[in-house]
Design a protein that fits this description.
The structure is a homodimer of 391-residue chains. Chain A is an alpha/beta fold and 391 residues long. Helix content of chain A is 34%, strand content 21%. Chain A has two domains: 158 residues, 3-Layer(aba) Sandwich (Rossmann fold), CATH 3.40.50.720; 170 residues, Dihydrodipicolinate Reductase, domain 2. In chain A, a hairpin with a 6-residue loop joins strand 13 and strand 14. In chain A, helix 5 runs antiparallel to helix 9. At the A-B interface, strand 7, strand 8, strand 9 and strand 10 of A face strand 7, strand 8, strand 9 and strand 10 of B. Chains A, B: This is Glucose-fructose oxidoreductase domain-containing protein 2.
Chain lengths: 391, 391
């Protein structure tokens, strides 16, 4: 039995998510927007019966059993944790900071019977499902290098907001880079041990953002990850990705069609996902072969949502349907269909890598990726000062 | 009047160079090979009247006025410097070390009336000539990022030799990366101030190299250059490239067709050279436009010589013809047609960058690019030891 859905957010992802959910038979009962106007406008457009700007009104809505959170990163943690506390299943986007991500992990561990996934749609894209499968089957031999690049137009909103602000989770690294960090770990079955990166903000002001306001979030970034042993233990093979170099290049000063390319190179061949299609070439073979084309399906490129994300989102919603439909209870779900999803633990790892890359860009040095195992004490600095004064 | 030519080298570049020279009307009088057999075999194949394994026999050959040196890097300095000393014009490839490159600069400065160029064919490729021109004309607006990538099959020779040995100038960074370092400086009119890099040797042994022998040269590298003020003062515009980030990815574990792509991104658009063709896209324009196709011309891809290098070599030989043909003396030449060539000073800069990238790969840190201004004293270490013992 499919659960009723409440959607948080009125941005481009929320806008494409609602029709995808309905296409799979989910009913969307409630919509939350930052302001009454935004919520009302999109609810009317999409024909959603209830809208609000009060998060509790959605969380406590009796028909809502699954909460999808696609809002600005600084608000994500609060709503996700509260939703779990009220006993709702949660699909959300990344948090703003590692501390937030840690709090989400704690909540998810406290309610293990509830679904809690960070909805990185790329993991569900058929091209990457196939790539992971073929990596495990040894298509490329021993994995050596992963190379990902995404080029596209500016990620900034029309008006000043969190997308402009590095500390609020804006910028290419946080928004798009994090999905690649997650994907590469998922594909290789390994986690970044050390990272090195370079971030730039080339466009500090534009027609909409001027005067005393400046963009602080990155529009260009470039980072390397040296992968170590198996992370979540759920990767393709165990530790096949140990010793692998991953390089990621992101450039959002390139209006026009999105370029979204992920290549994995090994001793015996390579696999390349260009957009939503998968290509492969074996050493000694007859050039590149198309391994998986784009079957078309749900619509064309939507503004601000690159095709790989859109298609992946569609596959993720389908997986959610399979996870819920055979269950008798509206809130029960089967793990199998969503086993490949990114967990909140994965979300914490990703956030840790993103912060290490930012640190590296400031320090100019390789930075270790050390995933938090306990929440930092917010009074620690204060305690240290008291300690010093006592002596 | 065209000068008679002597060619050093029997490798793939020398093999394609001889027909190109003849195609423009140059006569090739002499060929040097590392061994009598190699020299004799290629001389016979190409119909070159004289061959030898003694370098002086070519350098002192009365019909040779222009010496083209395409040999292993550790031998380049010695032959280039000697050739200039004997009064011959020199076109050569890069040296093995910055110290060698510095000695070549000293020799070139001592004989300013002689032609002395490091034959980086990419500078002459019509796609890059056009790219540089359009950069100067502001096609991309304010330049932000350059991104170059070359993927191809292994650079190792069939048998153990300098290509396997990092210290002898083997490896992707030294062989191919150096041509990109030179090109990016030429295109942007700026020089790298700081670099960061990562080098890997994924294939340490193969069918031909085994037992106690191991490959030490890199087959994968990845480096960033932060560009500073104008270098040679001959770039497109003056200092347009200051503050630009350049990223270079080289992977030579990818059998099949070479991928050779150089992209420059600015505030108003971008230019992309794919292989020998140039594409451009202006922000707000109607997608990508082909700006310069490949006119075909001299043959197809030759084994071990990527098409951009082959075509560039053809254009360079044509430029050499124009430099010499209007002159009365066989050894005189006009600067104009070869003004865009890489000088020995450029060669020293490139070698300095290559060494800084290697240093960065070992240290893990950003390294400054400091071009040598005087030859390091080979006795310096000894002196320091004596100094210490005296105290």
């Amino acid at each position: 039995m499919l659960p009723g859905v409440g959607v948080f957010g009125t941005g481009s992802t929320a806008r494409v998510l609602v029709p995808l959910l309905r296409g799979e038979g989910f009913e969307v009962h409630a919509l939350w927007g930052r302001s009454e106007e935004e919520a009302s406008s999109l609810a009317q457009e999409l024909g959603i019966p209830f809208h609000t700007s009060q998060s509790d009104d959605v969380l406590l809505h009796p028909d809502v059993d699954l909460v999808c959170i696609y809002i600005s990163p600084p608000l994500t943690r609060q709503i996700a944790v509260k939703a779990l506390g009220i006993g709702k299943n949660v699909v959300c986007e990344k948090a703003a900071t590692a501390v937030d991500a840690f709090k989400m992990v704690t909540a998810a561990q406290y309610y293990p019977q509830l679904l809690s996934i960070v909805g990185n749609a790329l993991r569900f894209l058929p091209a990457f499902v196939a790539m992971r499968q073929m990596l495990a089957e040894g298509y490329v031999g021993e994995l050596q290098v992963c190379d990902a690049r995404v080029y596209g137009p500016s990620l900034l909103d029309q008006s000043y907001g969190w997308t402009c602000e590095e500390l609020m989770g804006g910028g290419g690294l946080h928004t798009v880079g994090s999905t690649l960090v997650d994907l590469l770990s998922h594909l290789t079955g390994a986690r970044a041990m050390r990272v090195h990166g370079l971030l730039r903000t080339f466009v500090g002001q534009n027609g909409a953002i001027h005067g005393i306001r400046r963009v602080t979030s990155d529009d260009f970034s470039f980072f390397q990850m040296l992968m170590g042993g198996s992370g979540s233990g759920r990767g393709a093979g165990t530790g096949t990705g140990s010793g692998v170099c991953c390089t990621v290049t992101l450039n959002f000063n390139m209006p026009g069609a999105f370029v979204h390319e992920v290549m994995v190179v090994g001793s015996a061949g390579r696999l390349i996902a260009r957009g939503t299609e998968l290509y492969g070439q074996r050493n000694g073979g007859n050039g590149e072969e198309l391994l998986l084309g784009d079957s078309g399906g749900t619509g064309q490129e939507v503004k601000d949502v690159p095709l790989p994300h859109l298609r992946g989102l569609g596959s993720m919603v389908t997986a959610l349907k399979y996870a819920f439909q055979a269950q008798e209870e509206r809130r029960s779900w089967a793990r199998g269909p969503v086993a490949m999803a990114s967990t909140f633990e994965d979300g914490l790892y990703v956030q840790t890598v993103v912060e290490a890359v930012k640190r590296s860009s400031r320090s100019g040095e390789w930075e270790s990726v050390e995933v938090m195992t306990q929440e930092p004490d917010p009074n620690q600095n204060l305690c240290e000062v008291l300690q010093i004064n006592k002596n």
